[in-house]
Amino acid sequence: MQERQDADPVILLWQEWRETFASSQRLCHEAQRLERELAEKIGFPRVEIPLDHPGRPSVVATDARQIDRVLGTAPATRLLRRRLKRDLAAAQARWDAEAAAVGLTNAVEQEAVADRRVDELLRTASRTSARSIPGVIAKLAIATEWSELEPDADGYPWDFIRGVLADLTALAAREA
Fold it and tell me: For burial by CB atoms within 10 Å, which of 17, 22, 96, 120 has the most?
């Protein structure tokens, strides 16, 4: 097997991809856990926009642009909009500070780094020619493991399937 690993770069890519993908999944679950705990503790940053219509429920804004969309930009709503935007900025600042304190910010950053590496490895593996049947199997393993969790991912697993077909065709031609 060691000879095949040395001779087939897809096997090495598969091994690195498996480690990186598992790490990405762990980091994702950790970030989700921390976000849930933080949301339970302080709630998500948002403000309620009071409406002048009796019986109509208030609207929740999580972004300053939403405040302007709901209230408009008329001079009559300027003070209310400023207050709501200040309140929202304060809620966001509290969220950001708490997120940093509990490790959520760091967890999200680590997850993003791992996700970028997973994507790089996927692109590389889909474009790297397998040089052996174990290499073809490794390429298919990457495609199936990825598509189980990301069935709507752009191009996957089709890029891999096209690549595997080309690999098998080239291997068959060499053996013929």
Answer: 17
